Amino acid sequence: MALPTNMGARRDHFVTSLNPGFVAKPDTPPQRILDVAGGTGDIAFRMLKQAHVINENPETRVTISDINPSMLAVGRQRAESQLPVGQLASLNFLEADATSFRQPDGTITVESSTIDLYTVAFGIRNFTDIPAALREAYRVLRPGGVFACLEFSKIASTNRNPAASLFDAAYKRWSFSAIPMIGQIVANDRDSYQYLVESIERFPSQDEFRDMIIDAGFLVGGCGYENLTGGIAAIHKGMKPLDT
C-alpha cells in the first residue's frame, strides 16, 4: 500500500480509513461526528463527501469545533461556496475549547455520550492541556465511539534500522533550517513556521501519545497507531469501551 506523502493525501487517507457514513446494519441511528480544531473545514468537508456521496448516507452530521472564531468564519465561508445544499444542511459550527466543551457560565455545549466519531487533524499538538482534551473526548463519545487523531509525529527510527535513524537526523536538520526559511519567503512569516517545527518536536512520540490515549480510558488495537511517510505523521485511534 502506498502511503500518503503530502498534507492533502494524508487528510484523504485519514478520512477514508475512518469511512464515515458506512452503515453495517439497517436502522442504525445517524452518525454524529465532531471535528475538533477543524475551523477551515478541511476534514469536515471530506467527511461529508465520504458519508453523503461515497457511502450514500445523507443522515450523517458533522460539527466543526474550533477555539478560534476567525478560523470558523473561514470554514463557514468555504462551506457556503463549496458544499452542495444537502451537505451544507448537515454541517454545524461550534466555538469551543477542546479541553472543556462548556460556556463560561458552565453550560455544556457538547453533551456526554452523544458523539460517534471525534476527529482532530494537525491540531492537538497546539492544545494547552492534551490530557484534559483526551478526557473530554472520552466524555462526549458514546460507548463504542471512536477517537481519531492525525498529527505530525516522530520518524520511526530504531537501532536496528540505521537508514531510518539517518533519515530522522536529516529530516530534523532540514525542518529546523528550511521550513522557517520557506515561511519567510512564501508567507513573510518566519516565526509561525518556526513555531510549527518546534511544536512538532515537542509533541510526544507515537508510543507516548498512545499511552496518553489509553490513560484517558480508551481501548486501542495493535500498536495503537499507523505511521505515514515513515512517521513524519501518524494516525492514532482509540475506542470508548462499550461497557461504560
Task: Explain the overall architecture.
This protein has 2 domains: 7-154 and 204-240, 3-Layer(aba) Sandwich (Rossmann fold), CATH 3.40.50.150; 156-202. The protein is α/β, with parallel strands linked by helices and 244 residues long. The longest helix has 26 residues, at 162-187. Strands 3-2-1-4-5-7-6 form a 7-stranded mixed sheet, with helices on both faces. Helix content is 43%, strand content 19%.
Number of domains: 2
CATH homologous superfamily of the largest domain?
A: Vaccinia Virus protein VP39
Low-confidence stretches: none
Shape: globular
- The number of strands is 7
Question: What is the third-level CATH name, the topology of the largest domain?
Answer: Rossmann fold
Strand order of the largest sheet: 3-2-1-4-5-7-6
Please estimate the helix content: 40-55%
Largest sheet: 7 strands, mixed
Q: How much strand content do the residues show?
A: 15-25%
Order of helices and strands: HEHEHHEEHEHHHEE
Radius of gyration from the alpha-carbon trace, in angstroms: 18 Å
Architecture of the largest domain, CATH level 2? 3-Layer(aba) Sandwich
CATH class value of the largest domain: Alpha Beta
What class, by secondary structure content? alpha/beta
Mean pLDDT: 86
Number of helices: 8
Give the N-terminus to C-terminus distance in angstroms.
36 Å
